Amino acid sequence: MSLDRERVLRAAAALLTRKATASMDEIAKAAGISRATLHRHFAGRDALVRALEQLGIEQFERALDEARLDEGDAAQAVRRLIDRTEPVAGILGFLYSENQLFEGELNEGWNRLDARVHALFVRGQEEGAFRIDLSPAWLTDALYGLIASGAWAVHDGRVAAKDLTRMVAELLLGGAQRRMDR
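User: That's the sequence. What structure does it adopt?
Assistant: Structure tokens below.
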């Protein structure tokens, strides 16, 4: 029987999001596998977190591609991005708060993905759709923070999963849109 690596990583992310100090035993139990099986595939917590990081990068990159960021106006592209990111919001939420990933050298994959999101917000500012007093870097970080917060709220049952995309988009875009009366 082969191990469904992605399922194990999703279970690990769900647990670690709620309990950052979870042991490898607890992670194995949450994933429905033995500790020995978990250790055969991930030598330790660091290897597990790095595997989660790689999965998160791959899935976020796929979401960026599916969102077709260059099509339509920037606000529509942001809405599509939030929608395409919803299925992987839990993993992204965990990674957003995982300090270990920010110690030492940052994975180049994140820089590549950040550049794509940053460029989308720059385009929105150039189109006159987004406020220019909020930097594209801040808007990028705000998007990530809202996705992470939304994932946690859905996981805890405070927000219905079907409402996540709309709620994140409305809060982000409602605050980012340029208003003529400002």
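Residues 146 and 168 are 6 Å apart (CA to CA).
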